[in-house]
Design brief:
single chain, 18 strands, globular, 16 helices, six-stranded mixed β-sheet, four-stranded antiparallel β-sheet, alpha+beta
């Protein structure tokens, strides 16, 4: 085993037939029974341990270190630790008599999985772990050190319990570097077989956790380059000294609400037909109804509904990854405000579900950590981006529907989101820096005017001024929406052909743009 702490994951689909698929399904079903048996025994031991006298007496110890040591000793005595549950799962596997389906090593790692769920429950970091039903089953099984489930790089296959499962490897430079050559293959830390339901069908994959640094797909900018983000429920505005624009967080992540509504109605009718005794004459569900019969038609509709949500989630994940790579290619330091994304869910339900701004920020931080880049979260209450004006250095509250900011009280209007991103880009030591803001403003003002983010409009004076600003359109129309400009700015591997109805509101560098706005 290597001592490196750097790992990366390579996922490959398995090319298997019906016989191999049935073999894997039988092994995963047996793994599910081992999981449930281990979890049930562990929960019983946990109850006995908490009811024991020595456990209660341990809490009477005043010194914290001595008390924790005594509690840990009692917990080890009852076998409630990682290796104890691993041995417990191995014993269940041996007692079942089905040792040909799952090996000793795989059973121990199932016990380790049970321990991770139980550990959160013991230390009050999660709820009580639940048993896995036959409908859901196990999603994955794995082994460490290339034992049990073994990856054969020469065969490009997984060998498990005498069966060979070939993988589909793309002949690209990335996979050749990620997996290594046949003479010098990369070292495998973990080999995991994963089961997924795609298009209402069972599909199998292998995940290889490789030791070392992953191949480089994107060249990110240095940390000296800074970009400011203003993240809304569905869009994100971005401004740096040589780049400005905004786009949807997930431009292709649409959820088919009409199909979902029709499927749910069909499912409700199927349940009502199969369980007439669980409903009142008025149509309401009876209180305390526990037994529900599900027809095969209902199960089919349930799989279709799950597949619709899966497609939307996968599309959203792809769009987020492409946007994050585009951001880090522009700058290695990202400044953004701390926002309550839960409030976005309460106030902008469908947009938050479709675009998932909170998930986007979470992935942005994780990508920055893995790529040794920086994401700075700014204090929203202190900086008040949407209220500040760098020319007058004053704060003015605006209603939510007012999407334009009058710069310095003049007739120059700038998009509120773009201006907030510009202020975030120029924050220094947690404070606004008017000199840096003005320098950045002069650098991007021409591009912003070309794209329609900055307007020169003669504004009325007096009380009609605020009313006029509130009546302006919410979003500016992009100045550059041609296919050439979009692909020049957004060219990544995961892009799909854009739909005609979608327009990306992005502005590139002035030297890169050869068109003029119509």
């Amino acid at each position: 085993m290597g001592t490196s702490s750097q790992y990366y994951v390579v996922e490959l689909p398995l090319r298997i037939g019906d016989e191999e698929s049935r073999r894997l399904a039988m092994a995963f079903e047996f793994g599910r029974t081992i999981y449930n048996a281990t979890l049930g025994q562990a929960l019983g031991k946990l109850t006995h341990m908490r009811q024991s006298t020595e456990w209660k007496n341990a809490f009477l110890i005043k010194k914290v270190s001595d008390r924790n040591a005594e509690l840990k000793r009692i917990q080890k005595k009852y076998g409630l630790n990682e290796f104890g549950l691993g041995d417990m799962a191995a014993n269940h596997r041996k007692a079942s008599g089905k040792t040909n389906l799952i090996g000793f090593t795989e059973a121990k790692f199932i016990g380790f999985t049970v321990w991770r769920a139980l550990e959160r429950y013991i230390y009050a970091k999660g709820g009580r772990p639940r048993f896995k039903t036959k409908r859901r089953g196990l999603h994955s099984m794995y082994c460490c050190g290339n034992r049990g489930i073994i990856w054969k790089p020469q065969l490009q296959s997984v060998v498990w319990r005498g069966y060979r499962f070939p993988a589909l490897v793309k002949h690209t430079a990335y996979f050749q570097e990620a997996l290594g050559s046949e003479d010098s293959p990369r070292q495998v830390k973990i080999c995991r077989i994963v089961r997924r339901i795609l298009n209402c069908r069972e599909r199998w994959f292998v995940q290889l956790v490789m030791v070392g640094l992953p191949p480089v797909r994107h060249v990110y900018a240095p940390k000296s380059e800074t970009i400011g983000l203003d993240i809304g429920p569905s869009k994100v505005a971005m401004v740096s000294p040589n780049f400005a624009g905004f786009t949807f967080l997930s431009p292709y992540g649409e959820i088919p609400w009409a199909k979902i509504r029709n499927l749910r109605r069909k499912m409700a009718r199927s349940l009502r037909a199969m369980n007439p005794d669980n409903y009142e004459p008025s149509g309401a569900t009876k209180k305390g109804a526990r037994e529900w019969k599900r027809s095969n038609h209902y199960e089919k509709l349930l799989r279709e509904l799950a597949d619709l949500y899966r497609r939307a989630a996968e599309t959203r994940k792809r769009d987020h990854g492409a946007l994050i790579n585009s951001i880090f290619e522009q700058a290695g330091t990202v400044n953004l405000e701390t926002i309550s994304y839960r409030s976005y869910q309460r106030n902008f339900g469908r947009s938050a579900q479709r675009q998932a701004s909170g998930l986007f920020v979470q992935r942005l931080k994780r990508k920055a950590e893995s790529a040794a880049l920086t994401v700075n979260e700014l204090d929203t209450r202190k900086l008040r981006m949407s209220q500040y004006d760098h020319r007058t250095q004053t704060y003015t509250r605006k209603p939510l529907q007012q999407r334009w900011h009058s710069l310095g009280g003049s007739d120059t209007l700038v998009s509120r989101d773009i201006y907030s991103a510009l202020l975030a880009c120029c924050v220094k030591n947690g404070e606004h820096d008017p000199v840096s803001i003005e320098r950045c403003w002069q650098a991007v003002e021409h591009q912003l005017k070309s794209a329609g983010f900055v307007r020169d409009i003669k504004l009325p004076k007096g009380p009609d001024r605020e009313r006029f600003l509130s009546r302006l359109v919410r979003d500016p129309s992009p100045g550059f929406t041609s296919e050439a400009v979009q692909t020049k700015i957004f060219r990544v591997r995961s892009d799909v052909r854009p739909r005609e109805s979608f327009q990306t509101c992005f502005v590139g560098k002035a030297a890169d743009v050869s068109e003029s706005p119509e």
